[in-house]
Amino acid sequence: MDKSEIMVQVAHVQKAYKDNVLFTDLNFSMERGECCAVIGENGSGKSVLLKMICGLVRPDAGEITVAGERLEKGRFPKDIGVILDNAGFLPNETGLKNLSIIAGILGKVTKEELEETMRSVGLDPASRVNVGKYSLGMKQRLAIAQAIMERPSLLILDEPFNGIDQKTVKDFRRLLERLNKEERITILMTSHHQEDIQGLCGNIYQIVSRELRKT
Prior knowledge:
Layout: E1 6-17, E2 20-31, E3 35-39, H1 46-53, E4 61-66, E5 69-70, E6 80-83, H2 95-103, H3 111-120, H4 136-148, E7 154-158, H5 166-182, E8 186-191, H6 194-197, E9 203-208, E10 211-214
Parallel strand pairs: 3-8, 3-9, 6-7, 7-8
Antiparallel strand pairs: 1-2, 1-4, 4-5, 9-10
C-alpha cells in the first residue's frame, strides 16, 4: 500500500494503567477515505485507543502515525474533528455562539458555514436557547457540528450514538455516510452497538484479548 494512502497507522503499541494492561502489541491501519469502527466491552480500551490517535494519551511503547506524521510528546494530529467524552460547551451561550468561539481559534469557517453546519445536524442556528438547556440529543448534535464544521480530513468519534434516540441515530448515520462517501472524510468511531454501525462502516474491528480483530 502507498504510504500516502494511509491515514492512521498504529504499530506495536503497548498501553497499561498500573496492573490494567490494555494493549501489548497493537497493530492497526486505515486508509484515507475509509469508515471504520472499533467495538468492545467497557474497559477494553476503545476510548484509550482513540485518545492515543488524537495525541491526548501517550502509548507506553510503539508508534502512531496520522496523515504521515508520527505523533510524539506535544505533537497532535492536524486537520481532525473529534468527539471524546462529554463535550465541554459553555452552558450560558447559544449553540451558534459556542461554535463561533471554537471556530475563531483557526478562523477557517465563516458564520454562514457554521449556520449551515448546524442546520445539517438538525439544529436551528437562530435559536436563543442556551446550551445548558439543551437535551442530551441536542448536545450530541452540537458535538457533531463542532467535529465536522471545519470539514477535517479525519473524524474521530467516541460513541457518537450513545444515549440518543433512534431517529437521531438514523440522521447521524445518513450525515456520516454523506461526509464519508461524498466528501471523502476518513472516519474512525467506537460503538457499543454493532447494529448502529453495520452498513455504515466498511470495516469493523473488535478488541479481543488486547488485540484488534476484524469482525
